[in-house]
Every structure is written in C-alpha cells, then in structure tokens.
Specification:
Layout: H1 2-8, H2 10-14, E1 29-35, E2 38-51, E3 58-60, E4 67-71, E5 74-80, E6 85-90, E7 93-97, E8 102-107, E9 110-112, H3 118-133, H4 138-159
Parallel strand pairs: 1-8
Antiparallel strand pairs: 1-2, 2-3, 2-5, 4-7, 5-6, 6-9, 7-8
Helix pairs in contact: 3-4
C-alpha cells in the first residue's frame, strides 16, 4: 500500500525543505562567483558583470534576460555597487543568469589579474605552441590547442 502511494504521488515524497533565502530587491543583481580554488562573490549585490563567452562577450545588468552560456578563457569584470571594478581571469566555466536577476559564474579556474605573471604566462604560451607543433595525434593536437588558447588569453590579461 505504501509503495503504491509513493508511485502515485512521487512529488509528495521528493519535496525537500530548506530555509528561505532572501531574493534580491527590485533592480538589484546578486552575484555568486566561484572556482575550484576560491569563492570570489557569494550572493553579493553588484551593478554589472562583463563576461567572455563562446557566443561573444556580453554585459549583464539587473533584469537581464535569463541566459546560460559557456565561458571562454578571458577576463570577467565585476562592477560593484561602490564603483570598484574587479577583474578576474577565468580559464573556462559557465554563466547562468536567472529570472530573479541572480547570476552564477562557475569557473574551472579563476585568478585576479594582479596575481598573473606575464613572463610565466609567456613561457607557458611558448611551451604550449611547441607542444601543438609536435603533437602526434588528434587528441594531443586538441589538448595543445586549448592550452595555447588559454595561455594567449592569460598573456593578454597580464598585459592589460
């Protein structure tokens, strides 16, 4: 009998209770930005976010259309409410803009621009280019091409 009730009404048994979180106020945008190495923003209200994506770089303001995009290597720029601008290099990841104006940036790896070393990035680019030139198979070529793309973007970001 109990099994039949579960099968008939599974949603009743799958509900999860949790504490309510306060939604952003009208005209505000809450940002969560995290990577494997650090959480940069945790539901912090900001003015604007500029992101690099494979469909092109774009800016996000409150009331942005809901969006899901894949991040490409590049710089995410966050304009905070006090006018401070923070620039963070991301290697890859995803960006989600929700209909409540909350935004999640989940990066594979991310580092503030001030932590980037241009000479080390240039060395990594040279190494990746030589690996691309000497790649023996398609898999090695694809991996080296990705490494070249990321290294080129790090060199650009470190030079800015």
């Amino acid at each position: 009998m109990a099994l039949r009730n579960i099968i008939r009404n599974p949603s009743r048994w799958l509900r999860v209770r949790s504490f309510a979180t306060e939604a952003p106020k009208e005209g505000e945008m809450a940002l969560t930005f995290a990577a494997g190495n650090k959480v940069f923003y945790d539901k912090i209200v900001v003015k604007q976010i500029d992101v690099p994506s494979f469909s092109g770089a774009f800016g996000i303001l409150p009331k942005h259309v809901p969006t899901l995009a894949v991040l490409r290597p590049g710089v995410v720029t966050v304009l905070e409410n006090d006018g401070k601008q923070t620039k963070i290099f991301v290697s890859s990841g995803t960006i989600t803009v929700n209909d409540d104006s909350s935004v999640q940036v989940l990066a594979e790896e991310a580092h503030p621009l001030e932590n980037l070393d241009r000479s080390a990035a240039q060395e990594a680019l040279s190494k990746a280019q030589s690996e691309l030139n000497s790649a023996a198979n398609d898999k090695a070529k694809a991996e080296a091409a990705i490494a070249v793309e990321v290294a080129e973007e790090i060199v650009k970001a470190a030079s800015a």
